Amino acid sequence: MYPTFYRFQQGIGLHMWGLMLMVAFTASILTLNNRAKKVGIDPDALVPFYQIIIIMSLIGSRLLHFVFAEPGLFFSNPLIFFNFNEGGFAFYGGAIGGALSGAAYIRWRRIPFWKLLDAAAPTLMLGLCLGRVGCFFAGCCHGRPTELVETSTLVQFQGGSVVAVDGFPFLAFNFLPGVGVGNVHNIPLFPTQAFESFGALSIFLLLSWMWHRGRRFDGQVFASLLLTYPFLRGTIEIFRGDSIRGTDYFGVLSTSQLVSVPVLLLGLGILAIRFRKGVAPEEPFLESDD
Questions:
Q1: Domain carrying residue 182
Q2: Exposure of 35 in the CB half-sphere (CA atoms within 13 A)
Q3: Which tens digit of pLDDT belongs to each residue from 26-48?
Q4: Domain assignment present for 89
């Protein structure tokens, strides 16, 4: 819709997807910093943690995209990994890469493992909520055609428009040629970026309430994330229309739906193992006056 915020010269500019990615990381880090202090974790110990998960989430998201969505292209020319004009990024890959590397750092630094995972779980959804706004502006992760009649233009952007349609979902996105991926242009598409952004915001609010008011055991908030997001993502995949998201598996599952299965099982496993553990004592971290 609005892929470039500011263009310095031909081919070089400040792109909205990258800008929103920075906003997403910043908002998530600031929120986690505040919550970590409330459970006794020194924010200074998390600085390397943030650096590691940012790097590994970008690597993981890139790698998952190529391995599942464009394996032939990747394995024939692995250096395409570093060409950001080709391919894309997969949220699940970023989440997995960030989670595994972050968990390793937490164990190494002996930071309370489940305390930090519970505090971090809602912030992941906050980051996704903001990141999908970048996808909207960039035109990626778009929906399939609604096959409905466009009744009016609600908002006009340089790269397309938000339009009203005569049936569910009553609102659609219409991208102009040259914006986004694929060749689906000038027709109303399901607003999947908005679906996921609002869905992620809802999960963020739910998990934040749970973290503040409803925790019954350490690991509950993280497990709840693993149990809720797969249903959100699996449903949204039904409306996705960008073929670059991956090949159908077993004739019915996209890459993200396939990955959602073990994520959901992991959440159930954590729930089964941790639900009798209770909440360990926690005291707010108090910064020294030195």
A1: 4-41+112-274
A2: 21
A3: 999 999 999 999 999 999 999 99
A4: no
